[in-house]
Amino acid sequence: MSNLGIEVRHLHKIFRKRKGVIRARYSEVHALDDVTFEVALGETYGLLGPNGSGKSTLIRVLSTLLAPDSGRVRLLGHNIPGEEAEVRRKIGRVSVDAAFYKKLSARENLLYSAYLYGMDKPCAERRALEILEALGMDGEKFTDPLEEMSRGMQQKVAITRALLVNPPLLLLDEPTTGLDPKSKRDVQTFIEDLRARHGTTILLTSHDMAETERLCSRIGFIAHGSLIAEGTADELKLRSTAETLDDAFIALAGEKLEEDGSVAKSKKLEEALAEA
After folding, report:
1. What is the DSSP string of 134-148?
2. In the beta sheet, which residues pair with residue 13?
3. DSSP string over 162-187
4. Confidence class of residue 270 from pLDDT cuts 50, 70 and 90?
5. Of 60, 143, 244, 263, which has the maximum CB count within 10 A?
6. Which residues span the domain enclosing 271?
7. Number of structural domains in the chain
8. Which residues does 165 contact at the CB level (< 8 Å), separation at least 6?
């Protein structure tokens, strides 16, 4: 049996956008360009890159929300494409744009998700409260509508939803975005404890250097849809003769994580996604 939780080989994803009506022209955005990497069972692997670098597209492909144009993906022994249903049963996903029924409470949203997985209602409610407490969320907020919660509190509910069934594989797309410093530390501690106690395989995308260096045993640098370097934090710093991970990224990618151009690239990709 393979000891790999995630295996990605030569993955490509292109979005095409039509311009014009009578004489239609098409532009292409290479969201993922020949991406190859692997993550061992029980490992936490980080992907660092600016907005528009392809991080979220990769998470969408791995979580079966997008089909790759070419390449091979294997998650916990299951292939994409081909075994999407099996993959969905074994993954938990947290994204920066988590979708909820905003008129419903956190409790109602979480119990609905538990129902879809066939969880017992009392067990699911206990589990949800335990996770929310560990994330530093007041239990009294459990019955408040999501639309009345802050962005940070909604993100905690999204994390709780992904962890309800204790999945063996977690796909975390910038999970601490919108959280205050204390809440961010609570989430990071919870992720560390989860991997230590359950051996959960975790893929984390971020542009937070400190968070990635704390949580991840290995890190990949991604820019313009391509994986340009990977290794431990110390290996990446040594390779680039940099003192910090931030400087290492700049040296190897030739750009900053928060460069102005990344915003425009991200908007271009979002437009292509909407019309795909």
Report:
1. HTT--GGGGGSBGGG
2. 32
3. HHTT--SEEEEESTTTT--HHHHHHH
4. very low
5. 60
6. 4-275
7. 1
8. 92, 114, 117, 119
Q: How far apart, in whole angstroms, are the C-alpha atoms of residue 209 and residue 46?
A: 10
Tokens 């790759």 appear where? 68
Residue ranges of alpha helices (H) inside the chain are 55-62, 84-90, 106-116, 121-134, 151-163, 181-198, 209-215, 233-240, 245-253, 260-275
Q: Which two tokens stand for residue 238?
A: 């040594």
pTM, two decimals, is 0.82
In whole angstroms, what is the distance from residue 51 CA to residue 49 CA?
A: 7
What percent of the chain lies above the pLDDT cut of 70? 89
User: 101-114: b or e for each residue (b if 16 or more CB lie within 10 Å)?
Assistant: eeeebbbbbbbebb
Cα 1 to Cα 77, 170, 220, distances in angstroms: 9, 20, 25
Tell me how far apart the alpha carbons of residues 114 and 185 are, in angstroms, rounded to a whole number.
26
Query: Between vectors from CA 119 to CA 118 and to CA 123, what angle results, nearest 5°?
Result: 165
| Residue 76 backbone class (left: φ over 0; alpha: ψ -120 to 50; beta: rest) | left
DSSP letter at 241? T
Residue keyed to tokens 């069934």: 165
pLDDT band at 272 (very low <50, low <70, confident <90, very high): very low
Distance (Å, whole) CA 130 – CA 127? 5
Contact in structure between 104 and 98 (CB atoms under 8 Å):
no
Strand order in the sheet with 25-40: 25-40, 4-19, 70-75, 78-80
